[in-house]
Amino acid sequence: MPNISFRVKKKYHLYGGASLTFLVVLLCLLSYVYMPHGPNDMNLALRFTSPGENPGYILGTDYFGRDIFSRIIYGSRSVLLVCCLAVALGSVAGTLLGAAAAIVKGPLSAVIMRSIDGLMAFPGILLAMMMVAAVGKGQQGAIVAIAIFMVPPFARLVYSLILDSENSLFIKAAKSYGVTRSRLLRKHYLPLLLPRLITQFTACIGAAIMIETSLSFLGLGVQPPHASWGLMLNEARQHFLQYPYLAVVPGLAIALAVLGFNLLGDGLNDLLMRRRS
Amino acid sequence: MDKLIDIRNLTIKTPGGRVLVNRVDLDMEKGEILGVVGESGCGKTLTAKTIINLLPENLSWEADKFEVLGVDYLTAAARVKKALVGDRIGYVPQNTGFYLHPMIKIRDQIADGHILYKKRTPEQALDKATRLVSAVGIRDAPRLLNSYPWQLSGGMRQRVNIAMALMNNPALIVADEPTTALDSTVQKQVVDLFRQVNNDYNTSVLMISHDLGLVKYYCERILVLYAGQVMEEAGAEELFEHPRHPYTKMLIKVIPSLNIKKGEKLHEIPGHVPDLHQAIAGCVFKDRCSYRQEVCGREVRDQTIGSNHIFRCNFDL
Amino acid sequence: MLNYIYKRTSHALQVLFVVSIITFAVLLWIPGDAAQLMLGADATPERLEALRTALGLDRPWYLQYWEWLKGFVHLDLGQSYLFGQNVSTLIAQRLPVTLSIAVFSMLLAAVVALILGSLAAIKKNTAIDYFSTIVMQIGSSVPSFWIGMIFIVYFGIRWQWFPVAGYVPPQEGLLPYLNSIALPSIVLAIGEVGMLLRTVRTSMLDAINQEFMDMARVKGLSSFSIYFKYALRSAMIAPLNVMGLQFAKLIGGTVVVESVFALPGIGRLILVAVEQRDVFLLQGLVMFVTTLVILIALLVDIAVMFINPRIRVEMQGE
Hints:
The complex is a heterotrimer of chains A (277), B (317) and C (318). Chain A is mainly alpha-helical and 277 residues long. Chain A contains nine helices and no strands.
């Protein structure tokens, strides 16, 4: 039974997620317009300035005297761009594979879906690490790794949605008119799939940020001297026992970004469910 | 005679203020079989659920008097009500769903209430369960007790439900549409079982049904509910011989009799149960009533005929 | 029943086969082959050629794959050029560390999720439900390496409750052992608990609304047996399945946590293999870990079948 407080809670998912996501996007846009200091500008005289100590460096400086606030702003770029690009690539590939498997059927479909199962069987970040080993460290490696990681969820979603809807009347009717496959896909399946794909996309960005930052943290993603939140934490490892503030802000930024996309995904999902019922 | 149930002016509301059950009176005496009939949504199940302390949490009820087996529900603590229902009232649910846990063997769920309230050992309880399961007409009781509920047919499951309701020798059995979704031959067996229990143990039965035909033969007294209100109340024979309320008359007409001629139209009651969102002025049945007069939109009165035939209508037709 | 086990096992084997192909193919793609990496950039072509022949790298890929697969089946995972040791030996040395924190954190996450998730479902829309929602969201959005660093600062340095790095094997005393894996396990568990909590809450809510719960209430049973005997039993299936899947994620997650806490486990080995592009080591590690994960998922599936009598008997009927 639907009751009022439940609804309020779900709406708060959507709004909370949307505003956090908006904040990350804003930060990313800001990096092209304004940063207090260059993200890689070193000021060795001002090493390890604590937050609040120097008004020019509100979040303090790191080992090289670089401004943490600027690096956080700049780091949003690599998070957002790498993750969005990677998930976009993965979702397109996954959607096409899933659709192909669902429509073509036969042995090809079996091969595709078994490969997807195989990709999914790799535990967590292991597949991404293996891809990095093959492609090489750095941004490209991270993008390829995350993109491949994102193929299976989309392929499975599209595959099951198409198979489920295949028995619905309007698809049967369309087939009986002799509609071509590509038209079927564009005009009939896509409107059906799109809302679910968007929800999935949003939720996957959260997971992608987690992988990207993990890779950077392990030193396999974005390479120094570039700024990325995971890399900042990696660099903080040497000194955070004396200067814990080094680890606080980048970690918080990651957590809030992931939280934002997760909440947005949840909220969109609820919206979708409610609209359908 | 002892009053088993004494309810005055029971009203059940949703949080939004919809009145689902409106000032219902319900009495039951010891050893009686009382039938409550009405279309779905008329409030008969909710009334029964209040008695067995199972009203959904978002609904609220109030009454001027609400006594069941000597316990005053208006003042009793939750644990007292729970113990009363567990110890002395049996519940036989509708057969459409799974009131037995699908992952637990019947032997492990038929007797847990019995063990708790009658302070028996599991062996004693199992012994009693075996006897009761045989008594409700199951031949191979040990095998049945070792099965899972979903391995049984609907009729078998309902017999298990009845045996479970009987475990504590209850003073009262509340049966909510106990025969729905059963084959008609099984239906008769199940209701015969209630009759037999009533005879053997003098257990009272509150039977809720939308099937007047069934109620007619097994109940001593019948309550007709419509849109949360009592329309008519009388002894079974009296009600069928001399129905007074237009709604009861229509219900009786609706019972499909065996001698329908081919091509003859089946009767139905025109219209729908009214929306209970707004308080209804006057008679709740007026929109579907063919005897409607102008006065029905303003008020409605209760009339009593003889000692215990009550009906709510402005006319006596 | 046997039929079900057979079906699940054969599916697992198919997946494993695909995994082996993917692993092999991806690592074949690494620029510069193993011989080049071993000898360095200034090796003479003659020596390279000789090593290639010795390693069998001059043969076509399908033969190489076949040899490798044969070795894998016989538990021979090849040689690490970095360590100059058998990959299986290296794994055997480090497996206890990784398994310890994985199992321990899974237990932690399961206990917390079960208690908190059940309470959240029973007391829906109360403070405890909101609290569990917050735990759920935080658990799944806060990166484990960050929590690890924070924990080291507070629990390790400031308050000195736990050692901050290193691993003590259980042979050297149970308490030091538990102490050494406590922080990593908790950190890992925080990442796992969210998803599990959500599943427990959902399936518990589902169970509470089942009709058999009405019956349990009418029987006047204690809240404890209503929820634990009746509700939890049917609510356990989905979380158990999720736990099987989560264990996989967990093993992946140990890479990061082992790195933060400087634990000599499989995860660290993987990281070294990736950084140094030790192809044979990486192939062996990936295959081993993935096989482990698939095996655990399979065992969980079969265990769930035993718990859920409906599947069991339906399968017998087939």
